[in-house]
Design a protein that fits this description.
heterodimer, A: about 130 residues, flat, B: mainly alpha, about 0% strand
Chain lengths: ~130, ~190
């Protein structure tokens, strides 16, 4: 029986395999996120389909609002309040970064003229072209 | 299904949608902001260490560490636990040129500076690990339990810091490559104009 030739994997082979598996994992994760959204949309669609023809969209909303109990309304108010607070805090943090970061940069450049930067936006967020 | 049941299902769908938005958008965004704040803190400490004259701004180790922090800040959104584990399992066979470069860079530094630079390097690597672990909301809840049981950082420090640094180096290298590609693209565009 002829002996199998020994396969020597080069650094490039390892890197290629790494990139391939990484691409598969990334696509799988994105697919899971999207399928969760599709499943939620499907449940909502099926619920609306039951009500279709029997009632109008306005009365669906009315029924939803009429069915909201006291404790549910407490949840909604607390959750809504937290969302508004969190978004406000985030906007405030970004404004502060925009306001203070140039000053830090200026002061550091006095000490070290060749100071390098991260290249983030003025708000400290990811650059739109890097999101792709 | 009765109309009442349909309305309950619709309310549940709305709730699920809000959870989906939170887990897949706001949570990731928040973790990225925390990660960047952590890296900015380490970078500032490193800058102050050099500003106090402990190390030169032109020291290769300082420049290398600062550059790696900068690219990690810029491309941190691409760091994932899957890449970290894949890198450790697949690319550890071929060795890491980055760690050789790092060793060469700190070899000429004074012993006290070498110790501090290594500490900054480890803090930086731990920030990357924290980010990629907490980025997944489900994993975060598991880590929270683990944290309550024994302390995540303590366990990591004691048993696997070298592995964490090696894995973080792979992610950083990907970011450095991305940065080089982006600079090449920008140069090509400038030349075209």
């Amino acid at each position: 029986m002829a002996s199998q030739p020994t396969l020597h994997r080069t650094e490039g082979d390892y890197r290629l395999a790494y990139k391939k598996i990484d691409a598969i994992v990334t696509i799988t994760k994105k697919a899971m996120v999207c399928s969760a959204a599709v499943a939620i949309a499907y449940f909502a669609y099926k619920s609306i389909a039951v009500l279709a023809g029997k009632t109008t969209l306005a009365s669906i909303w009315l029924k939803i609002l009429a069915n909201v109990t006291v404790h549910e309304s407490v949840y909604i108010v607390v959750t809504g309040g937290c969302i508004i607070w969190a978004l406000g805090e985030r906007a405030l943090r970004r404004r502060t970064i925009k306001h203070l970061a140039p000053r830090v940069k200026e002061l550091e450049e006095i000490i070290h003229r060749g100071r390098t930067s991260s290249g983030l936006t003025a708000l400290g967020t990811t650059r739109p072209e890097d999101k792709i | 299904m009765t109309p009442e049941m349909a309305i309950s299902a619709l309310k549940a769908s709305l709730g699920l949608f809000l959870i989906w938005v939170f887990v897949f958008y706001f949570w990731k965004d928040y973790c990225l902001a925390v990660f960047r704040a952590d890296i900015f803190t380490v970078r500032d400490e490193l800058f102050m260490y050099a500003a106090k004259g402990n190390i030169s701004f032109d020291d290769p180790a300082y420049k290398m560490l600062r550059h790696r922090m900068n690219v990690s800040l810029r491309y941190g959104h691409e760091f994932t636990l899957a890449r970290f584990i894949l890198g450790l399992t697949m690319l550890s066979n071929i060795g890491s040129p980055e760690s050789e470069l790092w060793e060469a860079a700190i070899a000429d530094s004074p012993p006290s500076a070498r110790k501090m630079l290594t500490t900054y390097r480890h803090t930086f690597a731990y920030s990357i690990l924290k980010f990629i672990t907490l980025r997944s909301f489900f994993l975060y809840t598991l880590v929270l339990l683990f944290q309550a049981a024994g302390g995540f950082k303590r366990v990591v420090k004691r048993y696997c810091y070298e592995k964490i640094v090696a894995g973080a180096e792979i992610l950083e290298s990907d970011a450095v490559e991305e940065d080089v590609r982006e600079r090449d693209r920008e140069d090509t565009l400038i030349e075209a104009v």
